[in-house]
């Protein structure tokens, strides 16, 4: 399998076209299968004739080989080097809401570093009564909290501002992951140090060469920011900031400082040591939107989608996708089969947690005709996900960051799916 999104989509589609069965209703198709002798039913298979692997064959298990296409991928032409780059979560191939760490997108400015718990230190200084240095063990003695949150790079969808470009939601919306974190609240560490009244901002730095220094307003720092050391029940993976990272629910990914080593308290925002204007959004008149940290409500249909064409023909079809909002809970997701003319509410499956990925499903009886699939998220503030044209009308065409516009998938009658934009 290639790393190149467009080629992969095409070869896979060609294969699926060849095997596509003429669609009958689900029950009819099942009944037809039951009449032809099926060796998988009538014959004893190898896996039933001998023992499988012993319990200690894999002390730490990996996904079974049949799932080895469910991996992070990068887009080669996007960045010069893979050390300072980004890859994409295979959201098209996942279900539910939790992203396994092993396939959660990575974004590093200077590579993923190896930092042991023994060598780990976190310093809090600046406008505090008592500057402090914590070891990893010190952190584990503060009260622990658990929270689930999505982390979305501000650049997610950035390549699509100018028009539909990449074949697959892994590439168009995959700079996102959603994990259950365990750690301590930043407010508890700050209280230990004693924030002085003039302390209005924290400046957070990582231990890697880029340091990824970011300023966060004190109000947010004292609210739900977590200093996390577990993700999805196990230690953070190296690439996600082992042993400790910042979790900043609802805010853009670049503020989620990995390998966090210093939190300075200041009376104003300290500009990042790298390009200061990097995470601003350019407006049509050349001015920039600044400090747009919160990720607005967004959604995408993950299946069917360009990497997941329909190969079972017409009849019952499960449409599924993800919705999220940095401003709170998702309250509704609507799905359109006709490019936004008519909308049907989808089912929200499982919990809709605030500032976390939310799964939706819509079960339809597909008539086998082409569709223009779209999903549209609404959050608890009443905000409704805009169309791409509505976004461009406000922010112009030369943008990169904060693209939360509605995605359109053109489903062809043969089940192939293409990334398009419709007027
Ligand atoms: N923290 C450090 N120390 N160095 C980095 O390069 N990248 C940031 C942020 N934190 C970065 C960092 C960016 S831009 C994003 S989108 C998120 O980490 C990505 O987190 P992930 O690699 O766990 O997906
Ligand atoms: Co980012």
Task: Describe this entry's structure for a reader.
The protein has 423 residues and is α+β, with helices and mostly antiparallel strands. The protein has 2 domains: 84-290, Sulfite Oxidase, Chain A, domain 2; 298-420, Immunoglobulin-like (Sandwich), CATH 2.60.40.650. Helices cover 13% and strands 28% of the residues. It has 8 helices and 23 strands. Strands 4-3-12-7-8 form a 5-stranded mixed β-sheet. The chain starts with a helix and ends with a strand. Residues 1-24 and 272-277 have low confidence and may be disordered. The structure holds ligand MTE and cobalt (II) ion (CO).
Average pLDDT taken over every residue:
90
Radius of gyration: 23 Å
Helical proportion, percent range: 10-25%
Q: In the CATH scheme, what's the topology name of the largest domain?
A: Sulfite Oxidase, Chain A, domain 2
Label the structural class: alpha+beta
What is the number of helical segments per DSSP (H or I, 4+ residues)?
8
Give the spatial strand order of the biggest sheet. 4-3-12-7-8
What hetero molecules are bound to the protein chains? Answer: ligand MTE, cobalt (II) ion
Return the domain count: 2
Question: How does CATH name the architecture of the largest domain?
Answer: Alpha-Beta Complex
Distance between the termini: 34 Å
The CATH fourth-level homologous superfamily of the largest domain: Oxidoreductase, molybdopterin-binding domain
**Which blocks of ≥5 consecutive residues have pLDDT under 50?**
1-24, 272-277
């Amino acid at each position: 399998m290639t790393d190149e999104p467009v080629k992969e989509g095409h070869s896979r589609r060609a294969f699926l076209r060849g095997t596509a069965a003429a669609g009958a209703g689900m029950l009819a198709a099942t009944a037809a299968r039951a009449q032809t002798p099926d060796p998988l039913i009538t014959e004893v298979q190898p896996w039933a004739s001998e023992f499988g692997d012993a319990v200690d064959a894999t002390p730490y298990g990996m996904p079974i080989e049949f799932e080895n296409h469910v991996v992070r991928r990068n887009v080669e032409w996007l960045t010069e080097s893979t050390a300072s780059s980004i890859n994409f979560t295979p959201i098209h191939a996942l279900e539910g809401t939790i992203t396994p760490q092993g396939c959660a997108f990575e974004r590093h400015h200077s590579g993923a570093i190896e930092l042991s718990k023994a060598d780990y230190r976190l310093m809090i200084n600046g406008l505090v009564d008592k500057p402090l240095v914590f070891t990893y063990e010190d952190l584990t003695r503060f009260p622990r909290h658990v929270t689930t949150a999505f982390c979305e790079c501000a650049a997610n969808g950035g390549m699509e501002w100018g028009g539909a470009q990449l074949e697959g939601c892994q590439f168009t919306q995959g700079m996102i992951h959603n994990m259950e974190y365990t750690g301590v609240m930043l407010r508890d560490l700050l209280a230990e140090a004693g924030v002085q009244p003039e302390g209005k901002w924290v400046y957070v730095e990582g231990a890697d060469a880029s340091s990824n220094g970011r300023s966060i307003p004190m109000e947010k720092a004292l609210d739900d920011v977590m200093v996390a050391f577990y993700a999805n029940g196990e230690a953070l993976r190296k690439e996600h900031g082992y042993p400790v990272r910042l979790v900043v629910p609802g805010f853009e990914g670049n503020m989620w400082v990995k390998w966090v080593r210093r939190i300075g308290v200041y009376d104003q925002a300290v500009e990042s040591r790298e390009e200061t204007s990097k995470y601003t959004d350019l407006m049509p008149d050349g001015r920039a939107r600044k400090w747009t940290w919160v990720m607005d409500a967004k959604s995408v249909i993950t299946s069917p989608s360009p990497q997941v064409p329909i190969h079972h023909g017409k009849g019952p079809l499960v449409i599924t996708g993800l919705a999220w909002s940095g401003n709170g809970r998702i309250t509704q997701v609507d799905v359109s089969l006709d490019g936004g003319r008519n909308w049907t509410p989808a089912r929200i499956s499982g919990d809709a947690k605030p500032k976390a990925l939310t799964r939706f499903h819509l079960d339809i009886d597909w008539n086998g005709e082409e569709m223009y699939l779209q999903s549209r998220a609404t959050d608890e503030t009443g905000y409704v996900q805009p169309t791409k044209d509505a976004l461009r009308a406000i922010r112009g065409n030369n943008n990169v960051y904060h693209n939360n516009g509605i995605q359109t998938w053109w489903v062809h009658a043969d089940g192939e799916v293409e990334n398009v934009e419709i007027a």
